[in-house]
Amino acid sequence: MGSLLRHAGTVTCAALAAVIIWQARHSQPEVLVKFRAEQVEEYCKAGIIGTGRLFSDEEMAAIRAGLDERISVATKDGKVRSEDLLNLHFNDTWLLELASHPRVLDLASQLLDSDGVRIFTTRILSKPARTGYAVPWHQDSNYWPLNPLRVTSLWLAVDDADAGNGAMQTINFTVAPTARSENLPVEQTSKEGGAHFDLNIRQDAIAPYEDQAVTLVLKRGEASFHDAWLPHNSPPNTSSRRRCAWIVRYTPASTKLIPGKRKLFGDDYEMLLVR
Ligand SMILES: O=C(O)CCC(=O)C(=O)O
User: Fold this and answer.
1) Domain segments of the chain as ranges
2) DSSP letter, residue 3
3) Minimum-distance ligand 1 atom for the alpha carbon of 232
4) Which end of the chain is more exposed for a tag (fewer CB within 10 A), N or C?
5) Distance between CA atoms of 57 and 221, rounded to whole angstroms?
6) Greatest Cα pair distance in the chain
7) 3-class DSSP assignment, residue 64
8) Which pLDDT tens digit goes with each residue over 177-232?
């Protein structure tokens, strides 16, 4: 497994132990088809759960090739960064099928405790080697005008992800219980912008928890699901390795968009019912 580095400050024993426990709990040789009851319980407690291996090496080779192709087409003219490839599934059947993979929908359905599942958004967030951007501390809940605001996000590692190449870090609900249902104070860093992170948790609000952040070290083909309210970030990728993720947000069938709150989600925004 990759080495553990802390985003800021030194490695603490608690943080190191948290990562070791994370890795031990979430690695298994076979692909995961169903969460055990204790995994669902852990998700409810912590706001995040690892799937271990979600796709086989063979499946991942095809997924990676398909995503690489989309990245190269979408970034060809240099107008959009590979971190910001949002909602391509609306015009791409292959991506819609990937987002609707039955194994993933079964797992999302378990975590949402809902037979019916919608795709809310998809994103390819591929941090190129050396110049990959940092994602600031945020809660997704701040961005999403949904009622009820129940979302689980699949984060599939398309490349190995570790602290060296900008893996995601989380502050679990066990550490910051108020974050479970409240937005921590934010500062708006720029005007609202589609794929950009502009509602960052204020430094003074995140500081008390930062030394207990967990780095999600995942091998290609492994994944995690996180809750909409979970505080998370990721450092820049200054390494020589790319760090690419395929991210899909799922809601229960009953969740509705509240139109007019954010530009990206207009009256005609479609939350596709896929199960
Ligand atoms: O991939 C990352 O570094 C951040 C992803 C993220 O913010 C999210 O999935 O909500």
Assistant:
1) 13-273
2) P
3) 7
4) N
5) 7
6) 49
7) helix
8) 999 999 999 998 776 666 688 899 999 999 999 999 999 999 999 999 999 999 99
CA of 202 to the centre of ligand 1 (A): 18
Please tell me if the CB atom of residue 155 comes closer than 6 angstroms to any atom of ligand 1: yes
Ligand 1 pocket member 124 (CB < 6 A): no
pLDDT, tens digit (0-9, with 9 covering 90-100), for 117-160 = 999 999 999 999 999 999 999 999 999 999 999 999 999 999 99
Angle between helix 37-46 and 102-112 (nearest 10) = 60
CATH class of 13-273: mainly beta
The identity of residue 269, as a single letter, is: Y
- Ligand 1 pocket residue status of 232, Cβ below 6 Å: yes
Residue 68 corresponds to which tokens in the numbers above? 């690489």
Q: The tokens of 99 are what? A: 């987002």
Both tokens of 64, joined, read 């990676």
Choosing from 141, 224, 232 the residue with most ligand 1 atoms within 8 A of its CB, the one to mutate for a pocket test is 232
Ligand 1 mean position, distance from CA 170 (Å): 10
* C-beta of residue 241 within 8 angstroms of C-beta of residue 166: no
